[in-house]
Design a protein that fits this description.
This protein has 183 residues and is mainly β. 11% of the residues lie in helices and 64% in strands. It has an eight-stranded antiparallel barrel with strand order 1-2-3-4-6-7-8-9.
């Protein structure tokens, strides 16, 4: 894991230095002067993790700094029936910096953390909150790990971006809306 992290850092540093030297004359760094907000469908975990489920998430990019958060809530958390269900929950968080290749094409190297749980939601064991009933979730098996990868961003039209994300433990696709702050 330390070797993979080291190689990832060297690759990111090398690509950033290369991008700064090759694109300096084309002034592509102005494309980072934008704010983007997006929604994504995310597969949290891989089959090798023993956990692989689809969730949803949001991402935010401002002046090239990128953050995302994806989550999968247990399905029966607020179920009013009295029963026990096999259930799952998970989340992932990533941060990175956007490297513009052109106005319509960018890549975002990212690092983060991912976590997932399989367990039982117990409708017999519940509490009342401001949002109604909340059933107890008992985790039986879980995984969590450092995560690293990249996101590819394509800007096919003004104010509209499409993206795909692949990391060691997640996969996601989505769309976003971008407001440019440059002239």
């Amino acid at each position: 894991m330390k070797k993979a992290f080291f190689l990832f850092c060297v690759a990111v540093l090398g690509s950033t230095v290369y991008a700064q030297t090759i694109f300096q004359t084309k002034d592509v760094w102005k494309f980072n002067k934008a704010v983007e907000f997006g929604f994504q469908g995310t597969q949290i975990g891989r089959s090798s993790d023993g956990f692989s489920e689809w969730g949803m998430g949001i991402d935010f990019t401002c002046y090239g700094v990128y953050l995302d958060y994806s989550f999968l809530i247990n399905t029966h958390e607020n179920d009013v029936r009295v029963d026990k269900w096999n259930d799952k929950r998970g989340w992932s968080f990533h941060a990175g910096y956007q490297i513009p290749i052109s106005k319509a094409f960018r890549i975002i190297p990212q690092i983060g953390y991912v976590s997932g749980d399989y367990g039982v939601t117990d409708g017999w064991n519940w509490t009342v909150t401001n949002n109604g009933i909340r059933n107890h979730f008992d985790s039986k098996d879980s995984f969590s790990s450092f995560d690293y990868g990249a996101k590819l961003v394509i800007n096919p039209a003004k104010y509209f971006v499409l993206f795909g994300q692949v990391t060691a433990h997640t996969f996601g696709i989505g769309l976003g809306f971008e407001w440019s702050l440059y002239q």
